[in-house]
Structure formats: structure tokens, C-alpha cells
Please model this.
Amino acid sequence: MVSVTRKGRLAIMVIFCQAFFQIQTLSLQAEEIAAKATTEKAASAAEKADGGVKGTASYYAKRYNGRRMTSGKRYDPKQLTAAHPTLPLGTKVKVVNLANNREVTVTITDRCRKRVSHFIDLSRAAARKLGFLGKGVTEVRIITLDEAVS
Model:
């Protein structure tokens, strides 16, 4: 009988501790989320005032040659096109390579998977003009020139 009440007290204490620690961490998580949101807003405002957003660029693999893109057209590695997760199809975008200050204007014709940071996937011709064709990825500034054409 004594062991049953002891187990009951222990169970109540464990439940109380778990509830108490969750309550304590919720306020810390809320503060962290609020701080992250304010820093993201400040960063996006600074990037917009500065002309575009910083992000990462890569280029299409050779296996995508001739495949249909989201716009319905076939991918041609010689065209200056790009894929972006959120920009409207048909949008003209200037992409500036931050390593060498080369720039190219591309049209968004496809979608790429969403990532945590800003990201653009360029055609091989655009990657060649930016000077990172053999490297795979590079840091770029993405500047929207106009809204969707269509």
C-alpha cells in the first residue's frame, strides 16, 4: 500500500514538473520568435531599400535539357531563364554575382523547391555569364525588374 501512494506522488510530481517546464519555456520561445521576426523584417526592409535580396544561385543540371518547365515551355540551356520558388512566372529579374559583380537579366519560367534562404536556379547560359558555371553555387543579389509579363 505504501508503494502505491509513493508511485502516485512520484507520478504527480513528474506531471507537475513537465507542465511547469513547458510553461516556462513557452514564454522563452515566444520571445525568441518575436526577436527573430523583428530581425527578419529589418533585414528584408534593408535589402529592399538597397535594391534586391541576397541569396544563393545554382544552375540546372544537364539532365533537365528539353524537359517541360512550369510555364509549359521546354528548358533550353542557351536561354536566359531561371526558376524561383515564389516570384510570378514571366517576371524579369536582374541577378548580380556578389563575387565578381557580373550581372545578367533572366526571366522566371519555372519553379524550384522552397528553401529557408532566398534562392534562384539559373539556366546554364546565365550561370556562364555570371562566371560560376563550374563552381555550382554562388552568392547573388536578386533584383526584381518588373512584375509578371503575362
Summary: Helices lie at 2-50, 124-130. Residues 51-144 form a domain with the Barwin-like endoglucanases fold (CATH 2.40.40.10). The chain has two domains: 1-50, 51-144. Residues 46 and 85 are 21 Å apart (CA to CA).
